[in-house]
């Protein structure tokens, strides 16, 4: 009996202990699932294999406008491949090299899955297989014939595969290097809050095959516009990322006004706009956009951040970087597809403004140089005395012309805005 009693009391203790454990694990499990770690949503998000297959299907069905290639590179036994899709509606009477060139890259960071979904939606829309609310694709035919577009849907395929395998916070490539710190502009500089798990720049600039491929692609394509698409917040960034200023010159004003237009039309003015380093709260060294602007001389180079959940905890990466319900998912891919159609439409016009400004300034300088040389040779040594005065006159003259150009630019952008207002319903009024 004693035995029975003791056995019964110990079994009831075990029972209550197990029940407690069960209860604890349910509560804790719910905690983990719902507030700390949102799992990969396979209903909303496609695998990289599926995205590649879908894109191949589009290319096969639309050979008149799409083609694709796979670029490969390797370094020290690490291999990478990057799928590049070219959209070009070839017309015999239009010379390809004279077309407006746009290079878009998605998925540079593994965990930002929504960006590659946007790439897929954009390519489906360009193939007219999917529509975008409030965007009349057939009315854009004229515009789309004048551009060549290269799209990299999954820049960091190896990193993305790690995320698909369950490492939901991975942003780096397949061997732990952040592809947006591996470029040569201000490479390797580390801020005080440097976190190697997030921002490892690699052993040297361009140590990573993915970055090598992107550099090669941008060199051969020589784009007018570069956009690298990210998520984690809502922002439209222009250079620089490695310092908290924007570049000098009037081209900066054009870039800023372009981003303001995109923000107003497609981000409901929610997006942060400005230099990456100045707006985001930290400096980033060795980024793609700084390289594209500074070294490749891409006149308009941007980083778009298309979505972020500020409420998500730092460890809940899937939710922080990607919409988790279908309504938000569709809103994000539709809004940003529409934003890219605005860029396709307005890009050449923005480029004219950049060219207009820079060519005017160069010619003013040349004109003044020529004028001064002519004066010097005509008046010989006497001119040396007047040199200082002439320098001042030159400065005033340049300032005067600069302000005239600025006024002209403002005038032009007003005209463009009013012109734009008349065609605005085509791309705006997106259901945000
Ligand atoms: Zn990113």
List the helices and strands in order.
HHEEEHHEHHHEEHEHHEHHH
The neighbouring-strand order within the major sheet is 1-2-4-3-5-8-6-7
Main sheet characteristics: 8 strands, mixed
- What percent of residues are in strands? 5-15%
Report the helical percentage.
Answer: 40-55%
The name of the CATH architecture of the largest domain is 3-Layer(aba) Sandwich
Distance between the termini: 74 Å
Question: Would you tell me the structural class of the helices and strands?
Answer: alpha/beta
Q: CATH topology of the largest domain, which one?
A: Aminopeptidase
The overall average pLDDT, rounded, is 82
Q: How many separate domains?
A: 2
> Which segments are poorly predicted (pLDDT under 50) over 5 or more consecutive residues?
1-34, 360-389, 417-432
Ligands and ions found: zinc ion
Q: How many beta strands in the DSSP annotation?
A: 8
The CATH C-level class name of the largest domain: Alpha Beta
| Individual helix count | 13
CATH superfamily of the largest domain: Zn peptidases
Radius of gyration: 27 Å
| Backbone shape | globular
Signal peptide: 1-29
GO cellular component, one term: extracellular space
Pfam family, one: Peptidase_M14
Domain Peptidase M14: 44-328
């Amino acid at each position: 009996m004693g035995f029975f009693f003791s056995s019964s009391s110990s079994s009831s203790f075990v029972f209550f202990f197990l029940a407690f454990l069960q209860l604890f694990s349910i509560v804790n499990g719910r905690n983990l699932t719902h507030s700390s770690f949102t799992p990969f949503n396979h209903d909303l998000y496609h695998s990289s294999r599926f995205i590649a297959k879908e894109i191949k299907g589009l290319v096969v069905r639309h050979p008149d406008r799409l083609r694709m290639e796979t670029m490969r590179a390797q370094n020290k036994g690490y291999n990478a491949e990057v799928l590049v899709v070219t959209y070009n509606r070839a017309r015999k009477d239009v010379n390809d090299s004279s077309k407006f060139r746009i290079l878009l890259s998605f998925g540079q960071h593994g965990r930002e899955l929504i960006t590659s979904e946007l790439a897929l939606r954009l390519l489906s829309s360009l193939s007219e297989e999917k529509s975008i609310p409030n965007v009349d694709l057939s009315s854009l035919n004229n515009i789309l014939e004048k551009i060549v577009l290269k799209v990299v849907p999954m820049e960091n395929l190896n990193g993305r595969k790690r995320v698909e395998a369950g490492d939901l916070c991975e942003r780096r490539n397949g061997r732990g290097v952040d592809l947006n710190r591996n470029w040569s502009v201000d490479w390797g500089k580390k801020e005080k809050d440097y976190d190697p798990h997030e921002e490892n720049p690699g052993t040297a600039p361009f140590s990573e095959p993915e970055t090598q491929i992107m550099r090669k692609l941008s060199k051969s394509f020589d784009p007018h516009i570069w956009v690298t698409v990210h998520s984690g917040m809502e922002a439209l960034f222009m250079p620089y990322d490695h310092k908290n200023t924007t570049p000098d010159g009037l081209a900066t004003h054009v870039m800023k006004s372009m981003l303001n237009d995109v923000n107003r039309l497609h981000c409901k003015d929610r997006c942060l706009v400005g230099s990456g380093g100045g707006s985001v709260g930290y400096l980033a060294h060795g980024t793609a956009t700084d390289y594209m602007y500074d070294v490749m001389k891409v006149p308009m180079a941007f980083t778009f951040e298309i979505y972020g959940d500020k409420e998500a905890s730092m460890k809940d990466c899937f939710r922080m970087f990607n919409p988790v319900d279908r309504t938000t998912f569709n809103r994000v891919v539709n809004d940003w597809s529409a934003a890219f159609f605005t860029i396709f439409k307005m890009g050449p016009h923005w480029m004219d403004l950049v060219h207009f400004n820079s060519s005017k300034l160069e010619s003013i300088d040349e004109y003044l140089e020529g004028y001064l040389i002519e004066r010097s040779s005509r008046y010989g040594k006497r001119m040396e005395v007047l040199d200082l005065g002439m320098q001042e006159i030159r400065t005033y003259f340049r300032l005067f012309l600069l302000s005239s150009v600025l006024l002209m630019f403002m005038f032009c952008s007003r005209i463009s805005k009013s012109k734009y207002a008349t065609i605005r319903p085509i791309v705006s009024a997106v259901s945000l």
